[in-house]
């Protein structure tokens, strides 16, 4: 007859015991005991030797030591089944709730006493097994079980869930990724394995984060595992995502890399802030005091930052430039402000425009649309007859722009002398550019290809044409904007208002000064220049030929200008700038990084579409000009596309010289990898 026994210094033969094997309790029968060493028969009919110290702290029952092997097997099977049933029927989490706060650790029989009045050996063993499995709630330190506190349990359960999810994602992901890569290599549609929706979402998220280089530590481990054996291609994740059809052909991965949200949907989560600004705007609308300003922009421009008027005075000029003031009702440091700072700039791409500001502001409330009252910074720039700046006097005011005209219409008015104000503006602009050249300005003028994309995804079609130049009206706007940025930077220096400056304090040779239009001249000039730096120190900008330059004329489009606008506006209102120099220095560090990231999209995405255009016409000959022959590779410029191509000199002929003209085609053009391989080059 079986009886319950307590743990003692030795274990008699015939005792049912358990020990850990492979992270699981193993049921066994004691055949022999000698000086703390046991010979056991396991439930798997194997004999093994074990120190008694290895036994789990629940033993029994103690039965007939002379039982036959078959009887022993039957006994072990019966207890295994009963203990399994008991374990399955226990709610260990409820037990943890009961024990939580009572003690920090206790032996098994203490916990059993919470459940039964007189637990038998099978109940003890079943409970012990269940508690061993509940690693998130209990820690087994023989002979006691420690009780994890609630905060540690929560952490462990979260990690356990994450680990379980990671294992599931990894297992499914390995199958999926191999199927996608095989389908991509064979140029066919992929057969997607069945998987739960949450796993598919997780794998899709990992691919997107890999494309944008934003994998967290867990995702990085999963990606390393599921992509094992695949080639280490720079755009592997993008190719897989497109094969899976979760991203379309021609997906703009540059946006992912810059962490830049396209379109205006990003602003929807800031709807309450936007409504507050709109309400404050409507409550503060004033009757405009300035109504003679005119803007000149592209025909499709909706975010109008600037407008101007000009008049003669005392033999010189007075140019009044009005700039949009989206900072007028802005809350700096708010979630919306942080989002706009992260965007840093508007993007103007062949497939469309994505504005830095919410469109309700950038193309609506604060855009200087004709006939609408708008808050503005109006600065009167007084210049002498030769175009020398005498003074800059800024003020905040409400304005109503008289007209929004286009470059084409302004060009015609200047050419036909049908608008005296525009003719006067052009006269001053010519003097301004001449003075800048005298001061060493290096001005590059080149054809502007217009890249047009129609359709989406695989149906996208690319067309490229050259923009019709409007040299007179474009000169007016470019010179007036440089005047404003330079003049307000000088005014800020005189009034101790710190601003973010664009500086390029480098020495340029005399031959770098001038206007360069030929491809060879442009290449030579570009080699002399260094990228400008964003800093608070008011240094010169060599390529512009100005002593100081603080961008402020595009506050709807660039966060640097937005910040500078707020600095000037706050000083005019209160006598103190919003941020001091040290605060601006800190902001400049982060802002420079965001400008660089968003700027990469603006540089590389139009080039991508140009290569798509060329790839469809790679066998067609394109005009090109040799602009550099130094070294083993020559550089050819294609002015009509604004693309440069490197090619082995031997492909071009024996006698090479800058300015030499060719007709070229290509053996390979890959927009994704930015690869262009020259095929033929025929000298014109």
Q: What sort of overall outline do the alpha carbons produce when their principal axes are compared?
A: elongated
Mean pLDDT: 94
Number of helices: 18
Q: Approximately how much beta-strand content do the residues carry?
A: 15-25%
How much helicity do the residues have?
25-40%
Task: Report what the structure shows.
39% of the residues lie in helices and 23% in strands. The chain folds into 4 domains: 16-148, no CATH class; 164-247, no CATH class; 286-596, no CATH class; 617-683, Nucleic acid-binding proteins (OB fold (Dihydrolipoamide Acetyltransferase, E2P)), CATH 2.40.50. A hairpin with a 4-residue loop joins strand 23 and strand 24. The model is unreliable at 1-8 (pLDDT under 50). It is of the alpha+beta class and 684 residues long.
